[in-house]
TrEMBL record, chain A:
Protein name: Sarcosine oxidase subunit alpha family protein
UniProt domain SoxA A3: residue ranges: 504-585
Transport in keyword set: no
Source organism of this protein record: Ancylobacter crimeensis
Aminomethyltransferase C-terminal domain location: 894-979
Xref: PANTHER family: AMINOMETHYLTRANSFERASE (PTHR43757), AMINOMETHYLTRANSFERASE, MITOCHONDRIAL (PTHR43757:SF2)
From TrEMBL, chain B:
Protein name: Sarcosine oxidase subunit delta
InterPro entries: SoxD (IPR006279), SoxD_sf (IPR038561)
Organism of derivation: Ancylobacter crimeensis
Length: 987, 91
């Protein structure tokens, strides 16, 4: 066991059992999986991506490139989980990745022998040819060899939420700078959200051993959080990663609500995706310690210096029994002293700098730590680290250690500052990229901006919090920063131990070595963007948090251009991985989008209707009866019932728009191709409207209820589009017209009854004394009446089916009552409910156009509606519809089609080609838009668009369907197959 | 993106639908050369890098068409007014 006897912010009274690769271990509440594994002396935690090299934990934070595990099992299994940020819980199951047959003995580690073929650009070189090898050899090999864990195969049993939050000041990160910024803004009175990805806010205060106002750093953090938590204008969001900066002060954040539990509590989501809108934000995200690249630097036991300190102070774990430190800066010395204070033997500190500050040397001497100034690590040995060689000058020291703490300096977490295209700026004095141009409203404080000392973090946090408060209208208090050390962070830039022994990894997660960078340089891929793509540097799940700067620094050394001129790749959201499930939230499966139900849905469900999605609506498709073998049989019955008796269907889904005002008639004249200002009151008219480019946009009937009052219907699919178009015409094109619009689609239920007996059914539902005779309510007549004993109704004598028909509209909440009343009134006539399939059959029999014909590529002329267009007025689309291309007589136009052999089935989408001619694009004359089986005619019928269609009645062509197969000879006919004179609907 | 709707206040852009450049105006259909003028009106658009006045419809809000000033390079929105002229808004 490497658990220290005392110390750490863990709860030793709450032991937690967990398994790793099936073996049982115990940790404590407050541990991460990584700290618990280290406490149990588990140093080998995974195998690398390409070469299957043994790998161990290198960090204590979100930047971890190596310690990725599969977490949980079954449908909850989640690959590439970072052990360093996985909170330990009772019963946690974790499995190592990329090993076969076991972590300890990995056969594919022989990949190391073929390493020369897997170097930089291997995708482009090794697997170039022959291309037939790809599918059988290369791809399976790469997939087996280079994996990053296995995704769960079952559906995710957990659910995810989305939420919105609003604040004056968002503070990102609850380290010293963030705490100070949040406190300052909060005390000024601003609404503050303080978000931190950790479960325990405090950042470095929990990891280091600073004294603040005489108290330990972690106690100061806890007290500040308690103080903030008591303020009503502060919301503290722990386990919440702010991962992206979007436009207008919008921030994306992921709250891991239940990831620290074995399973979410009942009714709790697993994660919650936040959209936080903040007037100002302070980025206090800290910095990430960089490694130094040397041969054998990936051996388990080699770790970031700050991580060793964190494991000792926060988790009470000795990451090594005997430690060496390799660094280029003063900060790492403090990590060494902290490790020593925690009881870890520190064998040596090797610092690349020949001259060290006297204070550090004195302290090391007092603690009995050997110092090798100007020393570098020249090689390592052991399956897990057992020995290092330190070269200084001409001598080499061989030191037996099981841990090596490395520090190459710190990289500020500038990621979020890049999300609006800001480019980080190189600062030579700290050898780091700091934020460049910032997203509007965002400021940076503390280590995220390159200010690494604790006192500096407090000062900048205060300043940023005060400025954010002022910017949002609050008076900031005077500076009251806690007393803390302004410790030295001096460093000498140093990236790579040239000539060290063994492969030197720059990006351990993607197995990119210093040699790969050199190959990219040699082969000309020198820009940072090319370096990244050619070597895959920084392209793994960690997005190069520990490797990008080192990689480009090595390239800069090779080119001699310097880091500033070399530049850096920029970062895009998300900062850390976000599960697709969280982005989807509740929108999955049948909840993918909201479903709209018709007012009679419940009644139709009782009738055993089969439903179909039409746009956002769920509509009755057909109503099967016992003994019917398939949908066609049901639909045939429904069609025959309507044509011989009476049927009913809910048509509430049509868009309904109320238009009122003195200019309503003029307005309609301008949006429809035909005239409505002359329409008599209590009459309806079919109308066609165009887009301004001359194509048909929509059709429907519009009724006039009064001198200044019209009601328009639109197709179901275009309801929202037409409404938006009408508002555009009114507000933007002709604001001088006095017309008011209201969408009333939701307010009215509308049911159509159709068939020779329709009037008799209608008589049964209208209130006594209502005259619905042919003379009182003729074809295209409209009546405002009462039904069902006093219920307000509008009755439109219109027909889509070609039969005598009425559409009855009642307030939506009475729609179901109306359906039941119609069924009762229609019982003597055997009234038959029908669905959208039968409706479709009947409209094709009548040659009425619908969505398939209103494709946005057809003109009124194409659809045989050209004669409706008024020549006495202007309307939207008139000018452009007159263009030669849109009036070309060669254009495909609407016609009907019937199979020459009545037994043959037609298919929508089939293309028309000449009989006996080739079936190719050059001979394509148009295509079939809609087909149906007509039970009245006893064969299939179709509508389609064919060149000069209206002039070719009686001609035969082939309907060729290369997709589904089939080549049917069809005869062109008039698009109306039944009752062409319309006698039935006037009956 | 957030749009400061003059009626509803600042709202998320997902409540709006976008049309495009607010500059083109519908030509006089009776004027000579109307066909060419309409062709320009329907199809020809500049694609400026910088501030652009655009038409947005507050579909999930007040149903007003707005003229929104947006910088196409940065998505910075510096204002929004009703597309309908002031006199008609007041009516």
């Amino acid at each position: 066991m490497s658990r220290l006897a005392t110390g750490g912010l863990i709860d030793r009274s709450r032991p937690l059992a967990f398994t790793f690769d099936g073996r049982r271990y115990t940790g404590f509440a407050g541990d991460t999986l990584a700290s618990a594994l280290l406490a149990n002396d588990v140093k080998l935690v995974g195998r690398s991506f390409k070469y299957h090299r043994p790998r161990g934990i290198v960090s204590a934070g979100p930047e971890e490139p190596n310690a990725l595990v599969e977490l949980r099992s079954g449908a909850r299994r989640e690959p590439n989980s970072r052990a360093t940020v996985t909170e330990l819980y009772e019963g946690l199951e974790a499995t190592s990745q990329n090993r076969w047959p076991s972590l300890d003995l990995d056969i594919l580690s022989v990949n190391r022998l073929v390493a020369p073929f897997l170097g930089a650009g291997f995708y482009y070189k090794t697997f170039m040819w022959p291309s037939s090898f790809w599918e059988k050899l290369y791809e399976p090999f790469i997939r087996r060899a280079a994996g990053l864990g296995r995704a769960a195969e079952g559906d995710d049993p957990d659910h995810y939420e989305k939420a919105n939050a609003f604040c004056d000041v968002l503070v990102i990160g609850a380290g010293p700078a963030g705490l100070m910024a949040a406190k300052t803004a909060a005390l000024a009175g601003a609404r503050v959200i303080l978000a931190d990805e950790d479960a325990l806010p405090g950042g470095r205060l929990n990891a280091e051993t600073h004294e603040i106002d005489g108290a330990p750093g972690h106690a100061f953090a806890a007290a500040t959080i308690a103080e903030l938590g008591a303020l009503p204008n502060v919301r503290i969001m722990t386990r919440t990663s702010v991962f992206g900066v979007y436009d207008g002060g919008t921030y994306g954040a992921l709250e891991r609500v239940s990831d620290h539990l074995r399973e979410p509590l009942p009714f709790q989501p697993r994660q919650r995706l936040w959209r936080i809108v903040a007037r100002r934000a302070v980025l206090a995200a800290g910095a990430i310690e960089r490694p130094i690249v040397f041969g054998g630097n990936d051996r388990p036991g080699v770790m970031a210096a700050g991580a060793v300190e964190t494991y000792a102070n926060r988790y009470g774990v000795a990451a090594a029994k005997r430690l060496a430190v390799f660094a280029n800066n003063d900060g790492a010395w403090r990590s060494a002293f902290a490790a020593r204070a925690a009881g870890i033997e520190v064998a040596a500190i090797a610092d690349v700098r020949p001259t060290i500050a006297p204070a550090l040397l004195e302290r090391a001497k007092a603690l009995g730590i050997r110092v090798i100034a100007g020393g570098v690590v020249a090689g390592t040995a052991g399956k897990t680290l057992a020995r290092i060689d330190i070269a200084s000058g001409s001598r080499t020291d061989r030191i037996a250690v099981d841990g090596l703490a490395v520090s190459g300096g710190w990289s500020p977490n500038v990621h979020l500052t890049c999300h609006h295209g800001g480019r980080p700026v190189w600062r030579e004095d700290i050898a780091a990229f700091v934020p460049g141009a910032l997203p509007p409203g965002l400021s940076v404080a503390g280590a995220a901006g390159g200010t690494f000392s604790l006192a500096g973090a407090f000062r900048e946090g205060f300043e940023a919090g005060a400025a954010a408060a002022r910017d949002t209208g609050f008076a900031a208090p005077a500076l009251d920063a806690p007393r803390a050390e302004d410790e030295s962070v001096a460093l000498a830039a140093f990236w790579h131990v040239a000539g060290s022994r063994g492969p030197a990894f720059v990006d351990p997660q993607n197995d990119v070595t210093a040699k790969d960078v050199a190959i990219a340089h040699k082969e000309g891929f020198r820009s940072v963007e090319l370096l990244k793509r050619y070597t895959t540097l920084g392209m793994a799940t960690d997005q190069g948090k520990t490797s990008n700067v080192t990689g480009l620094a090595i390239m800069a050394e090779l080119t001699g251009a310097g880091i500033e001129a070399t530049g850096t790749t920029i970062f895009r959201p998300p900062f850390t991985p976000v599960a697709i499930g969280a982005l989807a939230g509740h929108h999955r499966g049948t909840e993918f989008r909201p479903v709209r139900l018709t007012p009679t849905h419940g009644w139709a469900d009782e009738q055993g209707a089969v439903f179909i999605e039409t746009g956002a609506w769920l509509r009755a498709q057909y109503f099967p009866r016992a003994g019917e073998s398939d949908w066609l049989e049901s639909v045939n019955r429904e069609v025959k019932a309507v044509r011989s008796g009476v049927g009913m269907i809910d048509v509430s889904t049509f868009g309904k728009i109320d238009l009122q005002g003195p200019d309503a008639g003029v307005f309609l004249d301008r949006v429809y191709i035909n005239t409505f200002s002359t329409l008599a009151i209590s009459k309806a008219r079919y109308g066609v409207m165009l887009r301004e480019d001359g194509m048909v946009m929509d059709d429907g009937t519009t009724a006039r209820l009064g001198e200044q009052h019209y009601v328009m219907t639109t197709t179901t699919a275009n309801a929202a589009k037409v409404f938006q178009h009408l508002e555009f015409c009114l507000q933007v094109l002709w604001p001088e017209l006095d017309v008011q619009l209201a969408s009333i689609s939701e307010q009215w239920a509308q049911i159509a009854i159709a068939g020779p007996r329709a009037r008799e059914v209608l008589v049964g539902v209208v209130d006594p004394g209502t005259d619905v005779s042919d003379s009182a309510l003729p074809f295209m007549g409209v009546a405002e009446a009462r039904v069902l004993g006093g219920v307000k109704a509008r009755i439109f004598r219109v027909s889509f089916s070609g039969e005598l028909g009425y559409e009855i509209a009642v307030p939506a909440r009475r729609g179901e009552d109306l359906a039941r009343a119609l069924m009762a009134a229609g019982a003597p006539f055997d009234i038959t409910p029908y669905g959208v399939e039968a409706l479709g059959v009947m409209r094709i029999e009548k040659g009425h156009v619908s969505g398939n014909e209103l494709s946005g590529q057809t003109t009124a002329g194409d659809l045989g509606l050209g004669r409706m267009a008024s020549t006495k007025k202007d309307y939207v689309g008139r000018i452009m519809a007159a263009r030669p291309g849109l009036t070309d007589p060669e254009r495909p136009s609407l016609a009907g089609f019937r199979p020459v052999n009545p037994a043959e089935r037609l298919r929508a989408g089939a293309h028309f080609v000449p009989v006996g001619g080739p079936a190719d694009a050059a001979h394509d004359q148009g295509y079939m838009t809609s087909v149906a089986y007509s039970p009245n005619l006893g064969h299939w019928i179709g509508l389609g668009l064919i060149r000069r269609g209206q002039e070719r009645i009686g001609e035969k062509v082939r309907a060729h369907d290369p997709v589904r197969g089939g080549d049917v000879e069809v005869e062109i006919c008039a698009p109306c197959f039944l009752d062409p004179k319309g006698e039935r609907l006037r009956g | 993106m957030r749009i400061p709707c003059p009626y509803c206040g600042p709202r998320d852009s997902s409540e709006f639908s976008y049309l495009g450049d607010a500059a083109p105006t519908r030509p006089d259909p009776a004027a000579p050369g109307a066909e060419d003028a309409f062709f320009d009106y329907v199809y020809l658009r500049d694609n400026p890098a910088g501030p652009l006045e655009e038409l947005w419809f507050h579909a999930s809000g007040c149903r007003q068409w707005l003229k929104v000033l947006r910088d196409t390079r940065t998505h910075l929105i510096s204002g929004a007014v009703f597309a309908r002229p002031k006199a008609e808004v007041a009516r």
